[in-house]
Fold this sequence. Notes:
The chain is of the alpha/beta class. The chain is built from five helices and nine strands.
Amino acid sequence: MVVQLFMSHTKLDEDFCDKFDIAAARVGVKVFRSEFEEIKPPAWETIKNQIKASAALFLLVGKELVKAQAASDSKSREEWKYTQNWIAYEIGVACQRGIDVWVCCDSVEINFPVPYLNNYAIYGDQKWMRAILEAYGEGETFPLGKKGRNDRCVYETCQATYNLYSIIPKNGKVTCPTCLKTNIYTEGWLLEK
């Protein structure tokens, strides 16, 4: 049986989404990407059913998604509200279902809070995709607390916990995807950690 993953995204980040799709196809993993699927009204029902059929949800945060959130013109702000509401709904359904939720940034700093996630990939090099996607294809999951990857936001008011997939140099700075405050890694963080 082919494993399915759910892509939460904006279609404006076409390049990043295409890279993810191609990497999944190469390892035999199916991705539900809404703009390529037939969705009959009410859309929320199809989305919910597709998340239920998925092993994980991947929120792909690309340059256009970040730009849309920061936009000041009214048209872009309206489009962002629409996208933001769907992202929130999709993550909520995935959380309730108990599947892995990934936040994957494409060489951008996240600028909107994600209250729930269990995996955070923050670098632009997409080589990580193949190994992660292959693991899902083999039935592996990435629950919170994956050995050696567990990290926690240092701020008392946040304390978000997630598995961190990145290489961070000594004194490197990372934006927490939940509170959007900067965490400093004085000792750095290795992907192999």
